[in-house]
Amino acid sequence: MTAPPTGRVLVLNCGSSSIKYRLYDGDLTVDGGRVVDGGLVERIGEEGGGPADHAAALQDLMGRLDLGELTAVGHRVVHGGLRFSAPTVIDDDVVAAIEALVPLAPLHNPANLAGITVARRLLPDTPQVAVFDTAFHRTLPEAAATYAIDRAVTQEYGIHRYGFHGTSHAYVSRRTAALLGRAYEDVNVITLHLGNGASACAVAGGRSVATSMGLSPLEGLVMGTRSGDIDPAIVFHLQRNAGMSVDEIDHLLNHRSGLFGLCGANDMREVLRRRAAGDPAAALAFDVYCRRITAYVGAYYALLGRVDAITFTAGIGENAADVRAAALANLERLGIAVSPERNATGAGERIISPEGAEVAVCVVPTDEEREIATQTLLAVSRAP
Ligand code: ADP
Q: What is the pTM of this model?
């Protein structure tokens, strides 16, 4: 048995123009441990004010943080491909592998790599760990991860359901089991991560068995600016009839679709405000958004066979009671109901289904940085 991995961990979540950071100390494996420091560096590389690049931003950040006795640095990495199914201590070979995955995550992996490169240079004696958004979904059964496209093509080009938000789905499903007072191995949970990006996951006994994002984060639920599921023929239709290039269609589906494409607002608070004021476009956007969630809940219910809990998380899942109520309306025949009183009140981890309901409906605030810190300590304690 290895000693319980307590320690001091710096978590870095490097986006293309921002760095989210948290410094933790203590025993993170029991969801204890405290946040010592944290924040967000924004506008990296933008004209007028922000740090010139990730190197400058991290250099400045590390000068300000108290990194004495640092056990490890945990890096969020979006795409781990087929290779990474667990948090991994970073060496040159791991860096090369993350680099090789850039074609699958052209927006995310380069920013994650920039953070890794600079942190390794500034803290050469501190173990650095990559925690992958895709890793939790490496348990997907082959039938769930395979697209029904010519096998020769999918195999040559890495076309596979990788899934994302894995760190969040893992954390939230584990916390749900704790909230129900049950062993993680014994519960089946449908987790709904509804933030700017959104995905659903079916978790059977702690293993991801279905998830709505696929090769990229574009598939699945309706999102702030992404379409989620569409008929792929829409792409050919636009290319042939609207004369749009592949890059233009990519931009349309990733940045001008979803809630924004439907009603001009990508922020759910604004959608709810406009809907309440009688804006029909906002009302339709809300309905399309919630209906997609309902359909996934039904699909994952069928795949799991038995559902113990449905858990909402992230900005919309944690805060938008109207979305929770609409997404799970009229499902009493499946044992699913939301208590109007419980749904409208309360904070933090909580159950919002009526007393004695067959399926517990829960709200669990996600904490990806904490989960990255926990996974980082576990990876370091396992490393030879
Ligand atoms: P990210 O994916 O960027 O981490 P978040 O998890 O913070 O995003 O979620 C952002 C979304 O949460 C936005 O659509 C925002 O409108 C929504 N949101 C935040 N607070 C509320 C609220 N009180 N009511 C409804 N929606 C909210």
A: 0.95
- 197 CB less than 6 Å from ligand 1? yes
Q: Are residues 359 and 229 in the same domain?
A: yes
230, 337: one domain: yes
Is the CB of 269 inside a 6 Å radius of any atom of ligand 1? Answer: yes
Q: Is 205 exposed, middle or buried (0-12, 13-18, 19+ CB in 10 A)?
A: middle
d(CA 165, CA 230) in angstroms, rounded, equals 20
| pLDDT of the residue at 2 | 47
Q: Which atom of ligand 1 is nearest to the CA of 198?
A: 2
Structural domain boundaries, residue 246 = 183-363
320 neighbors 285 (Cβ within 8 angstroms) = no
Q: Are residues 50 and 196 in the same domain?
A: no
Q: Residue 41 has which token pair?
A: 């560096």
Residues 6+ apart with CB under 8 A from 234: none
pLDDT per position as a tens digit, 39-67 = 999 888 888 778 888 889 998 998 898 88
- Using the Cα atoms of residue 168, residue 171, residue 173 and residue 176 in order, give the sign of their dihedral: negative
Mutation pick for ligand 1 pocket among 18, 164, 263, 268 (CB with most ligand atoms within 8 Å): 268
Of 50, 76, 47, whose CA–CA distance to 61 is shortest?
A: 50
Q: Which of 132, 162, 195 is the last residue of a domain?
A: 132
User: Is residue 166 over pLDDT 50?
Assistant: yes
Residue 1 clears pLDDT 80, i.e. is over it: no
Catalytic residue IDs? 133
pLDDT digits (tens, 9 = 90+) for 77-115: 999 999 999 999 999 999 999 999 999 998 899 999 999
Measuring CA to CA, which residue among 137, 146, 144 is closest to residue 168?
A: 137
Q: Which long-range contacts (CB under 8 A, 24 or more apart) does 88-91 make?
A: 88/129, 88/130, 88/132, 88/379, 89/127, 89/128, 89/129, 89/379, 89/380, 89/383, 90/116, 90/120, 90/127, 90/128, 90/129, 90/130
340 C-beta neighbours (distance < 10 Å), count: 12
Q: Is 317 in the pocket of ligand 1 (CB under 6 A)?
A: no
Count of the separate structural domains present in the chain: 2
Residue 213 CA to ligand 1 center (angstroms) comes to: 19
What is d(CA 323, CA 238) in angstroms, rounded to the nearest whole number?
31
Render pLDDT for 317-345 as a digit per residue (tens, 0 to 9).
999 999 999 999 999 999 999 999 999 99
